[in-house]
Amino acid sequence: FTPTDGQVLDIGSADNTNSESFDGVGKRSFGDMQMSPDMRTLYVVNLFTRQIHALDVSGATLAQVAILQTW
């Protein structure tokens, strides 16, 4: 499911005719992910917002993940 403009589009619709969902392929998800050499920062490309996020993943739990910077 991808929320857009207050609307939820179901990619798995029964009749596979939801053209808005198919149009979103490659545009509404995460693109490349890359770990830093020291394995403490994960860089993620958000295709929908066209931003790169640097995430601190050095903590012991998922709750400790934090966004360091966004471009």
What would you say this structure looks like, in words?
It contains one helix and six strands. The chain is mainly beta and 71 residues long. The mean pLDDT is 76. The strands form two sheets. Strands 3-4-5-6 form a four-stranded antiparallel β-sheet, with no helix packed on it. A two-stranded antiparallel sheet has the order 1-2.
Q: What assembly state would you assign to the polypeptide chains in this entry?
A: single chain
Q: What is the succession of H and E elements?
A: EEHEEEE
Poorly predicted sequence stretches spanning 5 or more consecutive residues? none
Main sheet: strands, sense, barrel: 4 strands, antiparallel
- The structural class is mainly beta
- Spatial extent as radius of gyration: 16 Å
**What fraction of the residues are assigned to beta strands by DSSP?**
35-45%
- Placed side by side, the strands forming the largest sheet appear as 3-4-5-6
Morphology = elongated
* Head-to-tail CA distance between termini: 25 Å
Mean pLDDT: 76
In short:
By secondary structure, the chain is mainly beta.
Q: What's the structural blueprint in terms of helices and strands?
A:
Layout: E1 2-4, E2 7-9, H1 19-23, E3 30-35, E4 41-46, E5 51-56, E6 66-70
Antiparallel strand pairs: 1-2, 3-4, 4-5, 5-6
